[in-house]
Amino acid sequence: MKNLSFRHFLFLFLLNRFKGDRTIKSVFHLLNGKRSSQTIQDIKWYGLTEFFSMLPTWKLSVFEQETKWMENHLFIINSDNKAHMTKKGNIIVENYFNNYDWPPQVNGWKYGQTAAIFWKRLALLVQCLSFSLEENRSYVPVFDDRDIQQWLKQRWPRNKKDKKEMAFHLYNELFILLDKIPEKDAFLFTHRLSGHQHTGKTIQQLAGLMNQDPDESYFRFQATLHYLLANAHQTTYLKDTAAGLLQKHVLTDTAKKTNMYLQKGLTIQEIAAIRGLKRSTIEDHIVELASEGTDFIIDIYVSNHLQKDIMDTVQRIRTYRLKLIKEALESENVHADYFSIRVTLAYFGGIHENARTLSI
């Protein structure tokens, strides 16, 4: 490894956003899309939802080698199980991102899971329309996913006139939206599509063609999908392609199950016993619910007065490190366990963020 790549710059950028409060692996889990309670909390507390799962193919073994290289070359310091950038790291990241043309829409937390399905639907739709209008049935579908093909069958136009109309409007919808983003991103997206007498290129092929880092190409391609999903409501055919994919909030399956028991009035201890899980695991689920649940009632777990004390302390000491928050509260003779602090931070750092100011 001789030079820093896009993913290294992105890693350093995010590490800096953690302000020395988290471990090196916290950034890895964020970029890799690990849906753990801690990672979910981190992306909400530090305002990093857009970067969640944006580099899912970065293997841990490779990550550890590359971050060790960055540490040896004095870009980062890793001590006391916490990591932060050096002055050298700060300078190089600032220079790289100072005039960086960020994609107009990136939200891995909101669109990460749905973007892949949306892409498969759209790519197969475009390919099938292209070949069908040329009356050519001799081609291999870009995706052989049964669910995706079934989705297309349910919407497939009955005659050539309807196919032409669909193709015409879909083209216009894509043209209007792609015309508003950086040209390189539109190029990257359109050249991944396949059609009659045109085979879509891979990310690696396009990265080479554009003289762009493959990780950056992947990042920007995903961002374009996020952009299309965010603006699909303005259209007809893209909106239909995205139908059923978007959710207002995303919960892990295990948190959903815990929520089901909570709705029945069971206590944390009762749920832990029924599910055969530790109490701390159920508390993790509740923290996740506090962040994502629109109907979550925080007062059941943390008194309004303690909520205020916790949030005031966070604003005063300007950190999300639980131990430091707890110690600062105790110095003011305020008792709060870690669960209360986590629930409060999750609640006001999640979809309820407007309920009380939370900015560091």
UniProtKB/TrEMBL annotation:
Residue ranges annotated for the Helicase Helix-turn-helix domain, each copy included: 254-344
Pfam families in the record: HTH_40
Entry-linked InterPro entries: Helicase_HTH, YpbB-like
Protein name per UniProt: Uncharacterized protein YpbB
Lineage start: Bacteria, Bacillati, Bacillota, Bacilli, Bacillales
